[in-house]
Amino acid sequence: MPKDKLNRVDFHWFVVRTRPGREKEFCNLVRQNKDKIGNILEAYCPTHTTVDVRIAERKCKLPLFDGYVFVLATHDALAGFIRDYYPNAVIRVNRKRPSESRATLSTIPEAQMRKFKDYNENYPETAIPLERPYTDYAFNPKTNEPNDIVKVIDGPLAGTEGYITKFRRDKRLVYHIKGLDLAVSIPNIWNFHVVRVHNAEGDRQTLGTIKERAVDLLIGLIQGCGYGDKTLPMLYEFIEELTIKPSLVDFCKSLYNKGHKELSQRFAKLDTKNAELILNLIRYEKDNPGYVKANWNKLVIRPFLTPTPGVEFEDDQHETKIQHTNFTEIIRKVDITEQVYYPSKEKEETVTTTYYAHIGIIQDKDKESFTLFANWDYFLGEYFMTAGKANEKLVKGTKIQAANNPDNLEKKEIYKEKLIESFHNYAPTLYNILTNEKSKVKPIQNFNIAKERLNVMAITVTSEAGIDGAKDELINTCTNICTEINTTTHLAVWRRYLRTVWLHI
Asked: What average pLDDT does the segment 482-489 reach?
């Protein structure tokens, strides 16, 4: 049977609006007559979920979905039933958008309806309706930063995406019931297993690396053209020139006239996105003179994961190298797959992005062993500054017992286990290299590279034959740490530090 645009012949969960307090009456009438009518499979009345309201100075509970019934039926069957049996009810219609020729019927996808029913039956007391629309919770109004988007992994809300939003001192999950156009908040979200999902339209991790990505792009281009130790002086020179005249076309001509032909060609090939990245940096530098020079006064090796290679790769090439004065830099393609969410579409996708891992190889003084290292300078610097009880708590993360008002018998509250926010619980790969003596990859403080000192993740091999395996081990381990920290809803401070390691896009 063909499908029409008004869903008249297909089964859907429709939203029916009755008079307040009459939803059970409608529901019972459907159940009594559905066999006689046909094409009405189920009517659901979510009366379990209630909210506290005050009427005439008296506090009482009312159904959250007062006057709403959810009916699984064809449109024709449901419309006929309302006409013949209950004319005081209507099928809910979505608000007409300017781009639409007609209003659309409110329907709820089967998968979301299952979650909704499950949650309503098991956790009705925790749902809190919100007055503002769902889109209002995309940003923190105080900081104007985007709120983290998370996905529930298990339990009655498994698969549900929403914003982690701060309400006073409590962080809640805010999600959207589409058919009702209603935003609902769930307190104590940490009782559920959730993971961070990349916000394709405004992720904090991405926004926090904009200027760093621009500087790294410039450094990569300079190094990729073989300028080596001249990189930082040339970077400062380029920033100054572009600040005076922010035109990449004129800048390319200037480079060519100065004899930097290859570099000029590389700049000319920049796509619109990367060109805009550089120009945004230049605008910031103009408003904050000396910003680049003050924040990039040392250069040993680029951050571990960058979105651009610096050197040019052939189509079938996955790894290349740059020879520095004191070490060899290996640049390798690394594909990272992430769950990506588009808030405007309320749609999730799986996206794979190519990054470039940068690791150095230095031959030890005895000339027999080799150390491979990755730049985790700022991140590990912050870690090495923790000590004593703070370090123990950060790393070990043992379980503790927690309860609210345990002496209050009326609330019947019991002790519950709560995980401490730690590497042990939320970044197991990092926890392993910090605590396991047998771990091949180790964090090293103030690793000596000629005259420079750098906090690094490193692995040592005793012969040249072991270098290939060590490269794989180091890159895979560091990448796993990055993804673990980036996807957890905990370790927020360490996610900020991670921006210096992984220039996320």
From this structure: 93
3 within some domain: no
DSSP code at position 203 = -
Backbone angles phi, psi at 96, to 5 degrees: -70, 130
- Residues of the domain holding 128: 118-192
Residue range 142-197, pLDDT digits in tens: 877 888 898 888 777 788 888 988 887 778 888 887 656 678 788 877 777 888 88
Give the count of domains, the chain.
Answer: 4
pTM above 0.85, yes or no: no
Cα 9 to Cα 3, 87, 107, distances in angstroms: 6, 21, 14
> Quick one: 341 and 486 in the same domain?
yes
E strand or H helix at 152: strand 149-152
Q: Minimum mean pLDDT among 112-116, 315-319, 354-358: which range?
A: 112-116
Spatial distance between the Cα atoms of 185 and 164, rounded to a whole number of angstroms:
9
Confirm if 242 and 278 have CB atoms less than 8 A apart. yes
| Cα–Cα nearest to 66, from 77, 79, 53 | 53
In a domain, 2, yes or no: no
| Alpha-carbon distances of 388 from 55, 314, 381, 443, rounded to whole Å | 55, 50, 16, 18
Task: Decide: 117 and 106 in contact? Cβ < 8 Å.
Answer: no
Whether 251 is in a domain gets the answer: yes
In a domain, 4, yes or no: no
Residues 149 and 273 reside in one and the same domain: no
